[in-house]
Amino acid sequence: MTVSEELGITTKKEEDPAEWYREVVIKSGLADYSSVGGCIVFKPRSYSIWEKVRKEIDRRFHDIGIENAYFPLFIPEKLLEKEAEHFEGFTPEVAWVTRAGSSDLDERLAIRPTSEAIMYDSYKDWVRSWRDLPLKINQWNNVVRWEFKHATPFLRTREFLWQEGHCAYATDDGVLEDKERVLDAYQEVCEDYLAIPCVRGRKTEKEKFSGAVDTYSLEHLLPDGKAIQGPTYHNDGTNFAKDFDITYTDEDGEEKYVRQSTFGFSTRQIGTMIMMHSDDRGLVVPPKVAPTRSVIVPIYHSKDERKAVMEVAEKVHGSLERCKMDDRENKTPGRKFNEWEVKGVPIRIEIGPSEAEEDQVTIVRRDTGEKKMVSVENVEETVEEELNNMQKSLFKRATELLEEGTQEVRDYDDLVSIVEENGGFVKAPWCGKKICEEIVKDDTSAKITNIPFMYDEPDGEKCIRCGDKAKHWVNFAKSY
Amino acid sequence: MTVSEELGITTKKEEDPAEWYREVVIKSGLADYSSVGGCIVFKPRSYSIWEKVRKEIDRRFHDIGIENAYFPLFIPEKLLEKEAEHFEGFTPEVAWVTRAGSSDLDERLAIRPTSEAIMYDSYKDWVRSWRDLPLKINQWNNVVRWEFKHATPFLRTREFLWQEGHCAYATDDGVLEDKERVLDAYQEVCEDYLAIPCVRGRKTEKEKFSGAVDTYSLEHLLPDGKAIQGPTYHNDGTNFAKDFDITYTDEDGEEKYVRQSTFGFSTRQIGTMIMMHSDDRGLVVPPKVAPTRSVIVPIYHSKDERKAVMEVAEKVHGSLERCKMDDRENKTPGRKFNEWEVKGVPIRIEIGPSEAEEDQVTIVRRDTGEKKMVSVENVEETVEEELNNMQKSLFKRATELLEEGTQEVRDYDDLVSIVEENGGFVKAPWCGKKICEEIVKDDTSAKITNIPFMYDEPDGEKCIRCGDKAKHWVNFAKSY
Prior knowledge:
Helices cover 37% and strands 26% of the residues of chain A. By secondary structure, chain A is an alpha+beta fold.
């Protein structure tokens, strides 16, 4: 059994989530560590998930009028200094190019941790009049933040992939209208593709992006009771416009600063997806983004059986999309079952001699382990149906987790004990003061993930910390 | 006329191709310079061309079984040293990260000029047995070569975008079979999409990639009589396998080195496309990759006329794909014509009051200037037809240029004078010796672009330089 143990996941998700996660990512073949500390290799199985996400986001951005472009990887130091306030947060994390060939550079160059500086330096030349607005640009690229020596694939790596949208408008209205459309796009991709439920809301002053007037986020609750931040949208107001002198002449000939937004969706969401759905047997991937949707494992013990089984297997294989035929001779069926479970293929199709004789196959679902006998002529329809069911069921389970993991409290001791014992989101009334937020963090290490839009105004409620009139119901949680 | 002069291209292609190119790229809105020396911004109009190229290459690679992945941007110096011979050529061009935050790095990191080192460091762990082969991986990424201070957009920039394919096989057969398939893919995209004819062949020993056993290339001839290298495919043999210790156990249990290939297609092809087709009035883009395929310019002088014209214009706009409506009130029709010519929109649709009355429009082709009156009900069909015609016609013109620009010579003085006076490809018999190649280069600055596959063996011919028995017909040309 050594081989099987090597192949399978040896850590339980509940017992050691970090080690379990590492095992799932590596053994499923999604990613690999590299010889560059803190950086990983996105293997084809994860990169193809990213390509599907990219396609869905691109389609939605296209409808919003956002166009893709590409700006330089490098940012001259003097440009970064223009956005000192915003950039301060990134300073300890910047990788610097100081040499080229065998010469020192006159001015060192930052590798983009984010592209505000290099993009807005162009925007100031591109925008002249109200007719040049709105300017809606997105780029898909790699960014570098030198924070973590030990990579956690997808979740914490020094280099990661993302899209960063940067739009400029004549007025705040543009920023706020597109806010809804961009967050809708993000939420649809999270929910309908990655099967990750979202809590949409506004970040507090303390937690917002330093360059922004307001930050909006999608927050997720993981099975271990911790929250994780998803994609964000920032209303930058005129903050960057002032730093980079991006002005336009309005219809009355008056010169004004543009209003800006920035928003991003990163490969971190793949990590969230893995943590959300996977189990002790390995990876579970929502079918819509699965690189392989189904795998056929033929089972036989003789040449004659092989002939009969393979005939049915080939027929089934030809009728299915993104379906893999595992006809390797050097692995047992049981071994193959394990391997495809670890790799998270949503549907396994077993075909043995007795099944072949009756023109039937057995369909096994990765998430529930449910088995179903189906006649060959119904395989295509049933597989589609089961893939749909699985997609819905993963989202349903994650939604229940979110609902059950959210507890409304009004008492500070309850807040403290829930955060410490159960985790999850603690919904509590809050006065809006930073000091209360900070005290909760000191006491529990939980922060306000965001101020959810779905919560009503806290009519007559008192701040859970200080007892003053509450302004908002908010979610407290320990976060990744 | 100052404004119009500002808008239009002021340099003639024949008189100053470099300045003309710069004007076309910037004024057409394809790209912009940036505040990082040698780096450009790919604006949406050029990035969308790249996205179309990417989609077509991806589709073809998928059929060859090549999968996309993503490897780190950084390469530790010690890994580069493993491929000393191959890497030597890149050493003067490498950008080095030496600091992160406020600390010096223990080991400096190269920004990938190409990814052999970082990828093969993983391959050595991924490949164990013949069952792991072939391993066919591609990545789309940004690479950095610190060569040119002054960027020529797309053609010579310090950072550019490309795909780099890196495959490993058990035997040379795999490398050579996929060579044809990959070069077919490249040639189809060049010819059918970018309308760039290709001369496919093998590079000489002198001109091949230093890490390769053999390099194959697609070469193009530009209207200025200079050649430019297109995408390449390298048969690396066991060169990298030995440097990086990538071995597999074959079916008989014997340990062997893998055989490898590398191949790439870069954003430089966009530059070649621009130089090939564009003219003194601005950009000309093959319709299949054009961001905007047609533009409607309504023409009117009164409110009543406007109403009638716009009604027809809206109807036409609704029926066409990637069609832009230019209903700006602050520009004259003539000014709009100029602008869209500079920007290279393949078809202009003019609708004036008399045309509107008769339910007709005027269609004008960007490449030829040909005008055609069409009834509204036939617009969709005619536009499709004209776009097809234009796509074919650009390719035909470029093919004629290649044919007329290729001259067969047997006399050394002819070679020298043609290279110096006319340019183009000089087809000449060559003995295969490096010294003759070098002497031609010294005498004329022309090199052997490649040994075209389409040329027959030079039966009984003598080397144009030394008079020894010729081994190949080759193309000499001055090159970019």
